[in-house]
Amino acid sequence: MNLAWAAGSWLLLSGALGSELRRDGYVLRPPERFHMVRWEPYVGSVAGAVSLDAEATRSLSAALADGEGPEAATMLVSVVERSFSASPSERDDFASAVMQHFQRELGVTLSPERVDRVGGIVPRVEVLGTLREAGQVRTVLVAGLASEGRHAVVVVSAPAVRWESLAPGVRASLDTFRLEATTAPGVVPRRVLGALAGALAGALVASYAAWRRMRAGQGTSEA
């Protein structure tokens, strides 16, 4: 039996995950004891919003923590208006983008420890590393979750001494992630654009045919 699957199933059944979070078109059950924190400090932030495309629109969507002060673990969820497949070819690109994001945009150095591609209903790429913040060593997990058109990035940070106990709950939480259909503005997937174009073309043809029939009927009545 797959140990990661077994651990995740046990966490789901035992209630070790928190209440469902629905926000900006996605659904996620955070680890137990994680709760939304005061939003004001994060307004307009792109912290954790890692993207392979520097021009992509991105924003922080949710900030959670399991306590207060330096010993607390935090979870940031960002939405990036760009497709991400979490394919083997994008694995290394995402890892590189994570390092650049922390260095250039956050001003801290993330020392990578491992990069993994995780399969499942929503495949993802996980980058695990450590950084030093205010004299404290923290473990950081950055996960890019695959989706077409727009995707999410989840960043979890915790004191290194707490990571081993938190890791199973964090990964079980990531397994619950789903990106739902949304009417919010954003990048429209190419296959959706194709369907819309086909529907529009069909509507135009039907309208033109109706107009021709109407004109023909008018000509007959005038005769």
From TrEMBL:
Transmembrane feature ranges: 192-211
Keywords, in A-Z order: Membrane, Transmembrane, Transmembrane helix
Domain of life: Bacteria
Name under which the protein is recorded: Uncharacterized protein
Species of the source: Myxococcus llanfairpwllgwyngyllgogerychwyrndrobwllllantysiliogogogochensis
